[in-house]
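Consider what follows.

. . .
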Amino acid sequence: MSSLKPIASVFLLVLICSCASNSVDDSYGMSITTSASKNTITLGETVTLSINNPRAVPIASVQFMLDGEPIEKMVTYSSGKLGNRILKAVVKHSDTETTLEGAIKVLNNEEPAIYTYEIVNTYPHDITSYTQGLEFYNGQLYESTGQYKESKLRKVDYTSGTVLKNTDLADGYFGEGLTVLNENIYQLTWQEDTGLIYDVNTFEPKGMFRYDLSKEGWGLCNDGTSLYKSDGTEKIWTLNTDTLTEDNSIDVFTNKGKIPSLNELEWVNGKIYANIYQRNGVAIINPETGAVEGVIDFTPLKELVTQHDGLDVLNGIAYNPDTNTIFVTGKRWDKLFEVTIAKKE
């Protein structure tokens, strides 16, 4: 078994793809095959790649690549991105070069840890707010709300629920997640392919940006340098703050499969916390690999708020570094909960 440098080795295992067909006319029916069952592997597995060559075309050489990185035909995928990876093989034959393509899924090799929570405080929350984004910045709580003709950006006194500053979005915008970085508020809209930028102190508009590769805007957070954006799928995109283009992405997977419908995001001590739409739980995600390392079930919280016809699911996660606690609420909830979490023994 060949030994690969770390980055190649990480990509290698992820992309063990079988039966990938080539759209190039001179492929002679060749395809990439692998020892992986059902095109799926887990971290730590060793796989072998080969070329299916039904017409016995004389092959001079083969170079396999995983996510664009050269790899050997046998490799152990011990680290790297999970999810759907891209596999290629450049096959030289009869003075011709053919590129074959395929894909494979990489699963985590561990189940997510279960976390419990304890309510520290309960605060009032505007029952009319269809909460989409929630974040602390310099000790202040900022909130983005959704629905057409109802969407808002707000600064809120979380202890009393008093709205300290408010701006309404245009009627054609459905507000989504928000994050605050370097005195700028970044707010997403849902299907309008538009992100909005404001001055955090005045709420004055400073610009806008378009989504590059994703189709929709859902959740948003930052690590102090880059923005992370969900789009309602299993993907989380990394945005360059200079260009606001989606330069990279991870696929969020457990040991069983993908986690779709990722919604509101929050950066908490090096991990991404994500609401899952129509669920009352939160996934704790490794931002490098996409592995779900933990889950928190907040379902009981919904029973503690006023029950009414417009009540919707949990949505809104905000980490307060001053108190080292997490704040959660939901769409049209009349309470904001401050909680601590701990891994279940």
